[in-house]
């Protein structure tokens, strides 16, 4: 069994109902296909061009992959993302971006599944909206014909992930009461360093990269 397959097995054994998004940013297509061969189907990417390149590279051999975009998305890059059939955008944080994605989603594809990113730590370096902003954004998404809101996403604060995760849980309760949704919002929280805590607190998705693929290497 390869290191990737073994890591996937060990992580999934403790996930309960949570779904694993294998974060493959900066990793080669070969690593994705190795994880795919071990049964992994959800993959996360942070950069638009890298995601587009990888979807094209694997489409003939792994066309049932569900891609999750988990990086900051600029509106001028929305067209490329909106055209990917089996994609979830976890980082919608503005009306402008939501409207752009809806406008650009091809009519022959299912509505684009999205999550609202909430900045639960208040850190200026992190993207995401406030809870009040998320309520307003959820109302906007609710009337956009080419989007479907499926959940909320956050990044845990250093050394206080539990507070961030609880804030996301509380935000879900507030948003679901404020806007009558037909489906329960799912929570995407937890990464390699804190996914086990996120699972214990009720995460529906965890985003794990280095614990599966090893430490990332970035071009110089």
From TrEMBL:
Q: Locate the N6-(pyridoxal phosphate)lysine modifications and list their residues.
A: 25
Q: Which residues form the Alanine racemase N-terminal domain?
A: 5-216
* Stretch forming the signal peptide: none
Q: Tell me its cofactors.
A: pyridoxal 5'-phosphate
What's one GO MF term for it? pyridoxal phosphate binding
What keywords sit in the KW lines? Pyridoxal phosphate
Fetch the Gene3D superfamilies from UniProt: Alanine racemase
In the record, the note on similarity to other proteins reads: Belongs to the pyridoxal phosphate-binding protein YggS/PROSC family.
Protein name in the entry = Pyridoxal phosphate homeostasis protein
């Amino acid at each position: 069994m390869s290191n990737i397959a073994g890591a996937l097995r060990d992580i999934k054994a403790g996930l309960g109902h949570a779904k694993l998004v294998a974060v493959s940013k900066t990793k080669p297509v070969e690593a994705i296909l190795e994880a795919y061969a071990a049964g992994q189907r959800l993959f996360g990417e942070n950069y638009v061009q890298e995601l587009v390149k990888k979807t094209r590279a694997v489409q003939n051999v792994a066309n049932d992959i569900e891609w999750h975009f988990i990086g900051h998305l600029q509106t001028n890059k929305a067209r490329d993302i909106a055209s990917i059939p089996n994609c979830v955008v976890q980082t919608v944080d503005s009306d402008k971006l939501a409207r752009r994605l809806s406008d650009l989603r091809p009519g022959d594809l299912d509505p684009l599944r999205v999550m609202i990113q909430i900045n639960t730590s208040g850190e200026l370096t992190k993207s995401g909206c406030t809870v009040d902003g998320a309520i307003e954004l959820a109302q906007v998404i609710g009337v956009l014909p080419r989007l479907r809101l499926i959940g909320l996403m956050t990044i845990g604060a250093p050394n206080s992930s539990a507070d961030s995760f609880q804030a996301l849980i509380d935000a879900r309760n507030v948003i679901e009461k404020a806007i009558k949704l037909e489906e329960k919002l799912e929570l995407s929280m937890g990464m390699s360093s804190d996914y086990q805590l996120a699972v214990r607190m009720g995460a529906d998705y965890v985003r794990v990269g280095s614990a599966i693929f090893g430490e990332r290497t970035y071009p110089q």
